Every structure is written in structure tokens, then in C-alpha cells.
Amino acid sequence: MSAGGPKTVRVRIAVVVDERGQYNACGWSGADDPVRWARDGMDRDAGVTRAELVHIVEAEVPIPQAPLALTIRGVVKPGAN
């Protein structure tokens, strides 16, 4: 990404909540139908219809700036398997 490029990305996430308070969320770049994908992920009992409410959550989230480096420090103990 160039130094002058965008610093954030606008995301849209579909959240489905049922009458029991169970929920599932779905959204990604290029998602054709995040509401359908969120509904598909709900735990359903065969033949039981539950009330559902769909919310669309929108947010601006930061884009990580390259290069990303992660350093993990630790100690190797002799004889540990």
C-alpha cells in the first residue's frame, strides 16, 4: 500500500439474533449476501421456525500498515518436549 493510501476501511457485517439470544455474524470484502450467510450459520432445530432480527453493523476499521513484524520472546527449557 502506498504511503498516501487509505488508512481505514468501511466494513459491513450482518448480525442475526434469534428469540433465544443466539446470534451469528458474517461479512467480508465482496460478500454477495452477508445476511443469507449469517442466517445459514444459525443453529436451527428441524422444522422449528424462530423469530430472527437482522442488524447491519457498519464500522470504519484501521488498515494495518506494512511491514508488519511480530517478535515473540521466550526461553527454551532443556528437556522440555
Describe this structure in words.
The chain is mainly beta and 81 residues long. The chain has a domain at 8-62. Helix content is 9%, strand content 32%. It contains one helix and three strands; from the N terminus they run ββαβ. Strands 2-1-3 form a three-stranded antiparallel beta sheet, with helices on one face. The longest helix has 7 residues, at 34-40. It is flat and about 55 Å long.
What are the defining features of this structure?
81 residues, 3-stranded antiparallel β-sheet, flat
Coarse morphology:
flat
* Percent of residues in beta strands: 25-35%
Radius of gyration: 20 Å
**Which spans have pLDDT < 50 for at least 5 consecutive residues?**
none
Largest sheet: 3 strands, antiparallel
Percentage of residues in helical conformation: under 10%
Given helix and strand content, the structural type is mainly beta
Order of helices and strands: EEHE
The overall pLDDT, averaged over residues, is 80
How many alpha or pi helices? Answer: 1
Strand order of the largest sheet: 2-1-3
Report, as a whole number of angstroms, the end-to-end distance. 42 Å
Task: Write down how many β-strands occur, each being a DSSP E stretch of 2 or more residues.
Answer: 3
